[in-house]
Design brief:
Chain lengths: ~525, ~350
């Protein structure tokens, strides 16, 4: 009987609570998760410094902070994957005595990881079966029907017999939540659950967690997307540099308040001023370029200009940008500084002065095992050497200057990039175009994805500074606010073609979104 | 979601196809050889074939167990040799039945100790499984040569007769091995424990996060490997009857070959014990038929290597096909005249 009764995450109750705001007073509710005096050190970095937080039953408690502020470490300690140096964790009133995910799960903690924990190669049903504690596991022969029922409970349209690698990122994220709920947890930890989700999916997830909270489950919600968080959370706790900045009622907080707590100063000026008079000196001329999922595209970039590419995801923006970097196949003509660019492989564009900042930092733009210095000078090492022998001293100095200039936070310039936060890794990737002597165009694919607020500003400033030196920047971003604030001009892509161009004086978040949605709906509704 | 598709999914044809294909090939090869030389199916030859298959079948099952958790055990060949050499000391001609029983236990214990050392090297010192077990292999190989410079030490004939006892041409032990392999496959693909083991092989980090006891599973897998190699060593001792210090050398390669032929993935999480047994039989049939067809035994070695390559490429086929398709698409895009590509993207 427990096999069915305990894990229902009732679609029936959603209708009653989904529309309401969370106004229930949970101050007297019992604590479902409490961390007391938790500290954790990684080398010289204090990831968590004497943190104490109470998470209560029935509340949606947002845990906010920049990358590297210690949220992930705290979640790791609470869920038993990280051993704290000091402090204790109590789940539903009982102490977590050993750092093991299984022990935490047995005490009543459910964890939905950001890097999803489904096992590729197994089916959806097998994954759910594996995640279920022994007492709710169905009989083997009944596995698929049972899994289908669990998916229906969360109103997910996923085939239980499908292999998990065939699911979309959004489906996997929702599956991750369903997995976490199988053990009938008292408290559910969600680590950045919406990074892979579109608006419609975010709404569905929020309806689901409001319903769970209404039934007395404590929700710990970690996210970068402030508007979403403030919309759904009842309480907010902010971490900065591993220190708890206090817990507040979400209703009393504005986005600006939260950001001020996160970065320790008010967010006075997020976007750097753009050039007063844009240059008319053409640096990049793309004509009739086409490739997989895009084309033909005509685009001209002037020196000193930052141009944004907007569009609903999957309309060829990424392929276009990557084709310019010679990573994706394409056919057409591209002139950079009046010279023809060879797009058949990546070295061609690099020689021509086009540098790509990939959205997939770990896989494509940063060597995670190498230090900051090695990452920065890799392509220009020859400059620091004599007869092929590199002079460390000559190499170090320009890197150190740039590290200061970009406000890159690392223990030293020899620290391996894998230990840096997302924002600092992106800055490491940025060092390369800064050092390159032959630079005309920066191609930035989601330059601030997974980057915290403070580092974002530094990256915007760095790109603008480079533009003022005469470089053109082409930015693909799914964040309309970012495009509106950063760019001099935004082109909108749909079905692989440029369908709209928004000049500087019209630029604004609403105008961009309207252009994207307008295009999408004209072609039959890509955005819901 | 018709019952037919779910039946096919349930049977998972891709998993059983290579095993079926090997069985068919065994019959074709055997039939062809028999038509040339009828003594191939004589009771004497068939019995020899199955007796020779048993050590490899056990080694391959052990290798399959290691591959399931995404690790290689290169030391199986040396473990088997050590067991043969140890047997030549503890299972001498003049021993009472309980003396023999103690000796067998000792031989198994030697294998398990090696397994424990391998686990320590791989899990505690975090060494790569290939390198760690290669080192173990080398040390054991040297130990064997130190204990017996050349083949010596006659092994107890009572033990040999019991181990190789046959009904007709079929050794009873082989039937037991097949039975255990079937139970093993049912365990892998039809139970929660097997699911956990597969999950660990496919993605250890995710499995751990979902409460799978990954360390326990790894230790169990490697002790299974060592145990299987130990028992395989005993059958090898029964087969050769003397403490030969180099007898097991080739089993490292052939055990991996047989496991892969039977469907084991080098990337972990997939494998079949019965497939490993059939793979072992297949390899032994190839070696067995060569003299009947008048070919040199050296062809056998070459065949084993080629078959391993074919089997590995076969399991990489979906990935290969994808790459070839992408390459063709890219090529077309680069060559296509402008108009054609526009209509393609529209």
């Amino acid at each position: 009987m427990t096999a069915t009764g305990s894990t229902e995450i009732g679609s029936t109750a959603i209708a009653d609570t989904g529309g309401l705001n969370m106004t229930t007073d949970t101050t007297d509710a019992p604590s479902v998760l409490s961390v007391r005096g938790v500290s954790k050190r990684y080398g010289p970095v204090k990831a968590n410094d004497d943190i104490s937080i109470e998470f209560r039953a029935g509340e949606i408690h947002a845990l906010l902070g920049e990358n590297g502020s210690g949220k992930s470490t705290l979640l790791g300690i609470a869920s038993g994957t990280v051993v704290p140096d000091a402090g204790e964790v109590e789940i539903a009133g009982r102490p977590l005595t050993s750092a093991s995910p299984k022990a935490a799960m047995d005490l009543g903690l459910g964890m939905a990881y950001q890097t999803m924990s489904e096992v590729a190669g197994l089916t959806v049903a097998q994954n759910l079966y594996l995640a279920a504690p022994a007492d709710v596991r169905p009989r083997w022969s009944n596995m698929e029907a049972w899994a289908a029922a669990r998916l229906r409970d969360a109103s997910l349209d996923i085939n239980a017999t499908a292999k998990t690698e065939s699911l979309s990122m959004a489906q996997r994220q929702m599956l991750e939540v369903v997995q976490a709920l199988l053990s009938d947890p008292k408290v559910l930890l969600l680590d950045e659950p919406t990074t892979a989700l579109g608006h419609a999916d975010v709404d569905r997830l929020h309806i689901l967690i409001r319903d769970l909270a209404a039934r007395g489950i404590g929700i710990v919600y970690v996210s970068h997307r402030l508007p979403e968080v403030l919309d759904v959370a009842s309480r907010v706790t902010v971490l900065r540099d591993g220190v708890n900045q206090g817990s507040y009622d979400a209703a009393e907080m504005t986005e600006a308040d939260v950001v001020a707590l996160m970065i320790g100063r008010p967010l006075e000026m997020a976007f750097p001023e753009s050039l007063a008079t844009p240059s008319t000196d053409v640096v990049l001329k793309v004509s009739r370029l086409r490739g997989r999922r895009f084309g033909p595209v005509d685009l001209t970039l002037n020196r000193g200009e930052i141009v944004g590419i907007a569009g609903a995801e999957g309309n060829g923006q990424v392929q276009f940008l990557r084709a310019l970097a010679g990573v994706e196949p394409s056919n057409g003509s591209v002139l950079c500084a009046n010279r023809k660019v060879d797009l058949t492989n990546p070295p061609g564009p690099i020689r021509a002065g086009l540098v790509m900042l990939s959205a997939d930092r770990k896989a494509e733009s940063v060597f995670t095992a190498l230090g900051v210095r090695a990452n920065a000078t890799l392509q220009v090492l020859r400059r620091f050497g004599r007869f092929g022998y590199v002079r460390r001293k000559r190499e170090r100095q320009p890197v150190e200057q740039l590290v200061d200039r970009l406000r890159l936070k690392a223990a030293s310039i020899e620290q391996p990039a894998q230990y840096l936060s997302g924002g600092n890794q992106q800055k490491v990737a940025l060092l390369r175009p800064f050092l390159s002597g032959n630079l005309h165009v920066i191609l930035a694919d989601e330059p601030t994805q997974g980057v915290d607020v403070g580092a974002r500003i530094d990256i915007y400033q760095a790109l603008r500074a480079k533009a003022e030196e005469g470089t053109a920047v082409l930015v693909k971003s799914s964040d309309a606010i970012e495009l509106a604030g950063l760019c001099d001009r935004v082109v909108v892509m749909s079905r692989g073609q440029i369908v709209d161009e928004i000049p500087k004086h019209e630029l604004g978040e609403r105008r961009i979104i309207a252009a994207i949605i307008g295009q999408a709906s004209r072609h039959g509704g890509i955005i819901e | 979601m018709t019952s037919q598709t779910s039946f096919r999914q349930r049977m998972n044809m891709s998993r059983w196809m290579p095993i079926l294909a090997m069985i068919v090939l065994i019959f074709i090869l055997g039939g062809y050889t028999n038509s040339k030389e009828p003594s191939f199916t004589s009771e004497f030859n068939l019995n020899g074939l199955f007796v020779a298959t048993m050590p490899l079948a056990l080694a391959a099952m052990g290798q399959c167990s290691a591959l399931m958790v995404k690790a290689f055990d290169v030391s199986v060949g040396a473990v088997m040799t050590v067991c043969v050499v140890a047997a030549s000391y503890v299972l001498p001609q003049s021993r009472s039945w309980w003396g023999l029983a103690l000796g067998i236990l000792f031989v198994i214990a030697v294998a398990l100790v090696t397994g424990a050392v391998n686990v320590f090297l791989i899990r505690v010192l975090k060494l790569s499984s290939i390198i760690a077990t290669l080192a173990t292999l080398s040390i054991l190989q040297g130990t064997c040569l130190w204990l017996r410079e050349q083949p010596a030490g006659i092994i107890n004939s009572g033990f040999i007769n019991t181990a190789l006892k046959s009904v007709g041409f079929m050794p009873i032990a082989f039937i037991v091995i097949v039975g255990i392999a079937i139970i093993g496959d049912v365990w892998i693909y039809r139970t929660a424990g097997g699911l956990a083991a597969r999950a660990m092989g496919l993605d250890e980090e995710s499995a751990k996060r979902r409460g799978v006891r990954v360390n326990f599973l790894f230790i169990r897998a490697f002790f299974t490997t060592a145990f299987a190699a130990g028992v395989g060593g005993l059958f090898l001792a029964a087969q050769v009857g003397i403490g030969d210090p180099q007898i097991g050398l080739s089993y490292t390669l052939t055990s991996i070959a047989a496991a892969v032929l039977g469907g084991a993935s080098l990337l972990g999480g997939r494998g079949s014990f019965i497939g490993a047994v059939v793979g072992a039989l297949f390899l032994n049939v190839i070696i067995n038929v060569l003299p009947f067809l008048g070919w040199s035994a050296s062809y056998g070695r070459i065949m084993v290597g080629l078959l391993t390559l074919i089997a590995l490429s076969f399991y990489q086929a979906p990935e290969l096909m994808k790459r070839i398709r992408t390459a063709i698409a890219n090529f077309r895009l680069a060559r296509a005249p402008a108009a054609a590509a526009v209509s393609e993207t529209a």
